[in-house]
Design a protein that fits this description.
single chain; about 150 residues; mainly beta; Jelly Rolls; five-stranded antiparallel sheet; 11 strands; about 10% helix
């Protein structure tokens, strides 16, 4: 399963590359996201004279136990709490994909202007809670988290 995930991820990454934007992913070892693991994704070669839309991408397998995923996202000195719905209440997965791998995309921010002076980096932290537990220490079924950055048309 792990080898297939890496191969599929590579082909998806290669098929999504375009001149107007970029996609970057962090792949989780053993498809688990520990609560103490903060993911950093750096963006490169961004035109600071244009605005962009940023799309959050969550890739998971169908063994994921929850309907949603809560994240803390730190970007440009602003921390957002985001809920990504991964399935309907009936259990039907919302994201696209085939087999037991699904990917959900949501617009994270629009009309973003990047800075030439600052490092354009995003930090992701899983913020899942369940019942009286303060955190879910090992979130199983998360394959990768990514960001798509697409230049707005002028």
């Amino acid at each position: 399963m792990k080898g297939a995930t890496v191969i599929i991820g590579f082909f998806i990454f290669m098929s999504c590359a375009n001149k107007q934007g970029q996609e970057k992913y962090h792949v989780f070892h053993e498809e688990k996201w520990n609560t103490d693991s903060i993911v950093a994704i750096s963006l490169s070669k961004v035109d600071t004279n244009s605005s962009y839309n940023m799309v959050l991408k969550v890739r998971h397998n169908t063994d994921y136990e929850y309907q949603n995923l809560f994240l803390f996202v730190d970007f440009q000195d602003k921390i957002d709490t985001i809920e990504v719905m991964l399935s309907e209440k009936s259990g039907r997965w919302i994201g696209r994909g085939f087999g037991d791998i699904k990917e959900q995309e949501i617009l994270f921010r629009d009309q973003v202007l990047f800075s030439a002076e600052k490092q354009n980096k995003l930090f992701f932290e899983q913020a899942m809670r369940y019942g009286d537990r303060k955190s879910i220490n090992e979130l199983k079924g998360i394959i990768a988290i990514g960001i798509g950055v697409n230049k707005n048309d002028k």
